[in-house]
Design a protein that fits this description.
Helices cover 55% and strands 14% of the residues. It is of the alpha+beta class and 227 residues long. It folds into 2 domains: 74 residues, no CATH class; 116 residues, EIF_2_alpha (Alpha-Beta Plaits), CATH 3.30.70.1130. The longest helix is centred in the C-terminal third of the chain and has 26 residues.
Length: 227
């Protein structure tokens, strides 16, 4: 038998047909397992967020608008304000207001992101409970504003978009998980089918004799022939 086996389109289709039950079983199995994990075992994660605008405090007698230097200065300060938001003191103050969450837990689930070339800072927290995510976000944003005003009294901190109780979890993405499991299961089953076919060196048909041994078929013995 030749050491190399080449497959044409007809061989490929025959292989897929031959291994169709195996391919279907593996694909369905992978999808079902993913569904069980996604819907039953993996806890949903909810996200609450707040966006805050950093600016200069308005003066009673100063009716002038922001100038270019003011904007550039506060855009640079946004990174500093972001570090304030990540600080332990902000987490400690928020923890005291919440009562049931430690500063370490808050810092673990808190993400503070300065928006590039803007005066905006985005704060996010995640939790397995939508209500808890909302409460933590409010506590953190209030603590952040207080601490920012203490460090930069001349700054003006305003909430642009306040936190809301999240309606849907951000994780897991159920549809994506199922589609990914289906595709991975399908690809894996087809790959295994090729591997099994490659390792199977038995002759099963007249076509196999012609293809692999390159010998003419003299006769065919019926499967149920009585000798």
């Amino acid at each position: 038998m030749s050491g190399e086996v080449s497959l044409n389109l007809r061989d490929l289709l025959n292989l897929l047909k031959k291994r169709s039950k195996f391919i279907l079983a593996v694909t369905v199995g992978a999808t079902v397992v993913s569904g069980i994990l996604t819907f039953s075992l993996i806890k949903p994660t909810y996200e609450a967020k707040t966006t805050i605008v950093i600016g200069k405090a308005a003066e009673t007698n100063d009716k002038s608008q922001y100038n270019y230097n003011d904007i550039m200065m506060f855009q640079k300060l946004v990174k500093t304000y972001s570090e304030i938001g990540k600080s332990r003191v902000v987490a400690e103050n928020a923890s005291m207001n919440l009562g049931d969450v430690s500063p370490e837990q808050i810092q673990k689930v808190l993400k503070v992101t300065p928006q590039v070339d803007t005066q905006i800072v985005e704060l996010k927290v995640v939790s397995n409970s939508p209500e808890k995510a909302y409460l933590m976000m409010n506590a953190v944003s209030n603590s952040f504003i207080q601490e920012s005003k203490r460090i930069y009294p001349s700054g003006n901190i305003q909430v642009m978009d306040g936190a809301k109780i999240p309606e849907r979890p951000v994780k897991p993405n159920k549809a994506l998980n199922l589609v990914a499991a289906f595709v991975i299961g399908l690809m894996a089953s087809i790959g295994l089918s090729f591997a099994l076919e490659y390792m199977d060196s038995t002759i099963k048909s007249e076509e196999d004799i012609n293809k692999y041994l390159e010998l003419p078929v003299v006769g065919i013995v019926p499967k149920n022939a009585e000798i």
